[in-house]
Structures are given as structure tokens and as C-alpha cells.
Amino acid sequence: MRLLVVLDKSFKANVALFIRSGIWVYIAIIVMYFDEKLREVTVILALWLVGSAISILLVIPEVIRLRRYSIGKKEIDYAWMWTGIKIAIPLLIGTLALRSLYLVDRYSLNYFSNLSAVGIYSFYSSFASALLAFVDAVVVMQIYPKIITAVKNNDQSALAIHKKKFLMSVSALSLLLFVCLPIGVYILLFWMNKPALVDYFPLLGILMASSVIYSFALLPHYELYALNEDKKIILSSIYAALIGVIAMPVGAYLYGVYGVALGQVLAVVFLYIYKTLLLKKSRVYG
User: Fold this and answer.
1) pLDDT at 276
2) Cβ-count burial of 187 within 10 angstroms (0-12 exposed, 13-18 middle, 19+ buried)?
3) What is the pLDDT of residue 69?
4) How far, in whole angstroms, is CA 199 from its chain's centroid?
5) Fewer Cβ neighbours under 10 Å: the N or C end of the chain?
6) CA 55 – CA 283 distance, rounded (Å)
7) Nearest-angstrom CA–CA distance, 236 and 231
8) Angle at Cα 42 formed by Cα 195 and Cα 54, nearest 5°?
9) CA–CA distance, 256 with 244 (Å, rounded to integer)
10) Is the pLDDT of residue 285 over 70?
11) How far is CA 252 from the centre of its chain?
């Protein structure tokens, strides 16, 4: 999918993403609605596997076409591929550290509260994650290749244009979702008749704020990436993860679901500020 984005085939990349993480969910809902016997975790996993497999099949022709045009009869340079893997492993470690923010929250609640609190938090967190995925698909994947190209070419005018477009697009889309998503969720809760969930409705706003801030943090992230500042990206991710690992359990102990959500916000705010400072330092001294 990322390869398609780099090749300026964002629409096909989003289609692959929708098949992998979206359409099979709706199929699962329909199947389980009509047959109670199929309301099993194994059915979810099977449909998830099918969706992922189909999305890969969709991308394979583009990969084959790319190889035919760019490589031809040349032999694959496995040594260069290994070099790429060695570069990617530290970035993977940084990414996994950052993903811990979305694991520690639930474990903290499970330890200091109960499974009911985990369920409430997970319910609202899923909508905040949907906001992040939507912004990523509609804005980030469309613009970040252009930002990277502008940085690589040292084209400051193009970079300024793309950064402004990124900020305005993320701001406008986030504002729209901040209005529409809570209304839709509230209607859903009214239809579901779940008063326990309604009592924690403000939690949605905190988690959505975390997703929006994380989206803005992607701007300095991609600029640092284009400047080959991999170590700074990794360190910022690890530091943000450490803040989250400390703040979220403390928040869970003191304030329950709201404390965990605020701990997550604190971590992503740090991530955004720290990456911005690192980017300024790279541009001054790099």
C-alpha cells in the first residue's frame, strides 16, 4: 500500500486499505445478523484474513508492472535489500514503541479498574482510531509523498505549499469529524440503549483530540524522514512511549478511563512538540 502511495497511486492504495480493514467488517455484520451460530471470533479472524489476502492480490499486479518497467532483466540486488532491512529494523522498533501507547491504556485499565472500564474505553477508542484512519487515507497519504519529494529536492516553495495544504486539510477534516462523529456516536448509543456508555460520552472528545494531535505530528515526522533523521524519529517515539507508559497507568489509578485518555494525550502532545523541535534543529544545524 505504501509503495502505491509513493508511485502516486493513492486511490488504489486507499481501495486496498478499505478492503483490508473495512469492507470485511460490514460483511461480518451482515453474516452475524442473519446467523447467530456465526457470531464467533473465528469468523472475525477468517474474514479478516480474506480481506487482507484480497488487498494483497489487488496490489500484486502493480508490483509486477513496476518490476518489469524498472528492473527488466537485471538481477535483484539482495545485498542492497539486506541494507534496507537493517535500516528498517530500528524504525520498526520505534514504531512498535509508539504503538505501545495503544496497548498500555487497556492493560492499565484492566489492572487498576475492571473489564467493564476496558470495554467502555475500547468502544470510544475505536471511533477515535477511525478518525485517525480517515485523516490518514484522505489527507496524509495524498500529500506526504509530495512533502518528501520537496524536501529531497530542496524545493522550499513547493514544501511551503504542501505543508500549508497538509495543515489546512487536516484542520478542516478534523473540525468536520469533531462535529459529525459525536453526533453519529450519540445516535448510535441512543439506538443501542446503553446508558453506561452514554455516561462516559466526554471520553470520545479526549480520544479524538489525541488522534488529531497525532495527525499533526505526522508533518514533522515525514520531514525528518526525508532529511534522513531516522535516529531522531526513533528517539522521539521511544520517549513518547515512555511518557505514555508512565502517565497512563498513573491516570488509570487516579481517574480511571479519563486518566488513561489524558495520559495518551500527554504522550502525543510531547511527540508533536519534540519532533517539531528536532526538525527545527535539523534545519539549522543539518
Assistant:
1) 93
2) exposed
3) 60
4) 27
5) C
6) 39
7) 9
8) 105
9) 15
10) no
11) 23
Residue showing cell 469492507:
23
80-115 CB burial, b ≥16 within 10 A, e <16:
eeeeeeeeeeeeeebeebbebbeebbbebbeebbee
Q: Cell numbers of 126, please?
A: 475505536
How many angstroms separate the CA atoms of 189 and 34, rounded?
Answer: 22
With a cut of 60, say whether residue 15 has pLDDT above it: yes
Nearest 10 degrees: Cα torsion 251, 256, 261, 264: 30
Least confident of 9-18, 170-179, 211-220, 272-281: 9-18
Please state the separation of Cα 283 from the chain's center in Å.
26
Is the full-model pTM beyond 0.85?
no
Residue for grid cell 441512543: 190
Q: Residue 64 to residues 68, 96, 255: CA-CA distances in angstroms?
A: 6, 30, 53
Tell me: pLDDT of 5 over 80.
no
Give the percent of the chain with pLDDT over 70.
95
How big is the CA angle at 132 (ends 128 and 138), to the nearest 5 degrees?
A: 140
With 70 as the cut, is the pLDDT of residue 286 above it? no
Torsion over CA of 65, 68, 70 and 71, rounded to 10 degrees? 140
Compute the distance between CA of residue 15 and CA of residue 142 in angstroms, rounded to an integer: 13
